[in-house]
Specification:
transferase, five-stranded mixed beta sheet, diguanylate cyclase, 7 strands, Diguanylate_Cyclase, two-stranded antiparallel ribbon, elongated, alpha+beta
Length: 286
């Protein structure tokens, strides 16, 4: 019986009250069946010992009736109590699991939960790493409470714009991560550009003042058998380039590879540097 209850606790969804009542009915039925089985075994023994005060048939009827009414009611009441205890345990466990996967300040997923989601991500998705530009300046000028207000405001915009299968998390400090699904690479980049613009246009109230912030983003595509560590490293490098170019921009990993190739060509032949720089400015509108 203890094993069965433990199994029910593991398999049953005791967060729902309906499960408690079904559990109580099952327990009552099993208790009555066991009681009837024990009675049917004991009655012949009592009759043989001369301790049975009633005829066998009457004794069987009476014992079965008592088993159903008394045993069923008592076991049902106990099962209800056990069910409510399991309900509280299930709710507490679910809440603990939720809290263990949630960043307390932003309300978004934390790094641990994001890492798990990234491992499960399939093709037709992109990993994005965001970073709030010049966040330390805000903390130094307005205080850490204002920095927290910025994190909360940015998180709310992220939550409103990444929905459905998309995953958004705070990775730590002023860094966020997102797994964006659907469409092709160009459509996902456009979506991220829109979010960047929304944040740049949003004024945040801090210490009686209103500040506008910007974010930078690095994007890498999740595809085929590509290892998630390689995807994350590529997004991180793209973010580094976005910050190095002045921030408030979205950089796809292909741009970082292009920039790396340019650098390697300059190192081979310094005389091509002015030409490559001009080409880069023309191609990226800077």
């Amino acid at each position: 019986m203890q094993w069965w209850i433990s199994l029910q606790a593991e398999l049953g969804n005791f967060q729902q009250r309906r499960t408690i009542y079904i559990f109580a009915l099952k327990m009552s039925f099993i208790a009555v069946i066991l009681a009837v089985a024990i009675i049917l075994v004991m009655l012949p023994v009592l009759r043989w010992l001369g301790l049975l005060p009633l005829p066998m048939l009457d004794a069987i009827r009476l014992c079965i009736l008592l088993a159903w009414f008394i045993g069923g009611i008592v076991s049902g009441a106990l099962a209800l109590l056990a069910g409510y205890a399991l309900h509280k345990l299930a709710v507490s466990r679910a809440e603990f699991e939720r809290l263990s996967r949630t960043d307390m300040l932003s309300g978004l997923l934390n790094r641990r939960a994001f890492t798990e989601a990234l491992e499960e991500a399939k093709e037709d998705a992109s990993l994005v790493i965001f970073d709030v530009d010049r966040f330390k300046t805000i903390n130094d000028r307005y205080g850490h409470a204002s920095g927290d207000a910025v994190i909360v405001a940015v998180s709310e915009i992220f939550s409103s714009n990444f929905e459905g299968r998309d995953v958004i998390a705070r990775l730590g400090g002023e860094e966020f991560g997102a797994i964006v699904h659907g469409g092709d690479m160009a459509e996902r980049v456009a979506c991220i550009e829109d979010v960047k613009t929304l944040i740049a246009d949003h004024a945040i109230a801090v210490e009686g003042d209103a500040v506008k912030i910007t974010i930078s983003a690095g994007i890498a595509d999740i595809r085929g058998e590509r290892k998630k560590e390689a995807v994350y490293a590529a997004a991180d490098k793209a973010l580094y380039l976005a910050k190095a170019l002045g921030g408030n921009r979205v950089v796809h990993e292909s741009e970082w590879l292009n920039q790396t190739w340019h650098r390697s060509q300059v190192e081979k032949d310094p005389e091509v540097a002015p030409y490559l720089a001009e080409q880069y400015r023309y191609g990226h509108g800077i």
